[in-house]
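A.,

Following up on our hallway conversation. Structure tokens first:
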């Protein structure tokens, strides 16, 4: 294992943060996997899972079983990790700008297309190599304007040439679920099975360029642009990027983290990136559904939230999910599932303000448009 330090742009006199990446295996000897944890710095289950992954990857490297390179960033956001206000960690939004740490990553499809135009041929593998070289060069030309920009740029540079990108997050109170690009679902399905994911949310564009879509969506956009100018030129979708939501914020547990690390290693073995026989594929807990079919249940008035159903349970249309109880007026509003689906996330707090989302259900019907992710 090699540990590398990446200094970030200094935000103030006498202050500088850095990112640390851990590198296993041999670059160029096979595929590349990039895994990062806690980009939202108040989401800590991924950081513990990364610690367990480190132990497993160290052992696999010593045994000579890594076929390629694995880059692990066990703590992807030193900026957010240091944002504690009145005893509360604020790791989702950068305090200086208010921007979400998992939004606004560089969209370089047009820049790279211009750079490789006329240089791609009939060899798909050679085309992928040329595109990755152009992408790495385009990222190297970006001059970060502040610390947040330099964090985003550094993470993109570490992941730019990866075949598989796994971004470890968690939700408030949730069953384990994941997000990926719609065309990548066949490649992602084994991962969902090994992880026991309760919901698989698919989109081609969810809005505001989150990290995973900046990695995988780049290839989809480039493929579309190349096809419009040179239809016979093959440009495969060469990065499977997945956001894995490791349940909820309070699921920081050794047993669960070890289970999730084992599932990720099983998936990498299934893909041939780790030598050995992969475990048999478990059943898929719930079918993949469109992110546009994620149904938020909203509180009609303020009150105490009392849930009827746990995250990770299937619900039928009309099932009671939660009560919103106003003890002053004595009113109770029961939130029911408008459609059948998987109750994959609940609000962690038990007090609702008017209009606040209380729970989300993954349904098969794509009915939402516009930006599909919450802030």
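Then the amino acids I'd put at each of the 375 positions:
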């Amino acid at each position: 294992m090699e540990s590398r330090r990446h200094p970030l742009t200094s935000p103030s006199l006498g202050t500088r943060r850095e990112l640390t990446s851990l590198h296993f295996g041999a670059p160029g000897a096979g595929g590349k996997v990039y895994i990062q944890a806690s980009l939202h710095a108040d989401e800590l289950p991924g950081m513990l899972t990364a610690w367990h992954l480190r132990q497993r990857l160290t052992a696999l490297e010593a045994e000579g079983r890594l076929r390629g390179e694995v880059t692990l960033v066990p703590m992807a956001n030193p900026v957010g990790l240091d944002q504690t206000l009145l005893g509360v960690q604020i790791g989702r939004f950068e305090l200086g700008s208010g921007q979400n740490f998992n939004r606004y990553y560089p969209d370089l499809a047009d820049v790279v297309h211009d750079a490789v135009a006329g240089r791609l041929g009939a060899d798909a593998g050679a085309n992928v190599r040329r595109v990755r070289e152009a992408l790495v060069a385009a990222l190297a030309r970006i001059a970060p304007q502040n610390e947040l920009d330099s964090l985003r740029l550094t993470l993109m540079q570490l992941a730019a040439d990866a075949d598989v990108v796994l971004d470890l997050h968690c939700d408030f109170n949730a069953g384990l679920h994941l997000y990926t690009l719609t065309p990548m679902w066949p490649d992602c399905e084994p991962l969902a099975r090994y992880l026991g994911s309760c919901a698989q949310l698919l989109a081609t564009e969810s809005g505001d360029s989150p990290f995973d879509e900046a990695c995988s969506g780049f290839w989809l956009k480039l493929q579309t642009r190349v096809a419009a100018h040179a239809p016979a030129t093959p440009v495969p979708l060469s990065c499977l990027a997945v956001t894995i939501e490791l349940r909820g914020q309070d699921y920081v547990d050794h047993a669960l983290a070890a289970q999730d690390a084992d599932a990720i290693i099983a998936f990498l073995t299934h893909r041939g990136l780790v030598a050995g026989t992969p475990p048999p594929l478990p059943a898929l807990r719930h079918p993949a559904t469109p992110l546009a079919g994620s149904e938020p249940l909203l509180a009609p008035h303020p009150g105490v939230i009392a849930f009827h159903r746990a995250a990770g349970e299937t619900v039928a249309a009309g099932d009671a999910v939660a009560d919103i109880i106003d003890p002053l007026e004595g009113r109770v509003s029961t939130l029911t599932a408008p459609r059948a689906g998987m109750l994959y996330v609940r609000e962690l707090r038990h007090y609702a303000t008017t209009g606040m989302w209380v729970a989300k259900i993954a349904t098969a019907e794509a009915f939402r448009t516009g930006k599909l992710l919450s802030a």
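The mean pLDDT is 97. Curious whether your intuition agrees with the design.

B.
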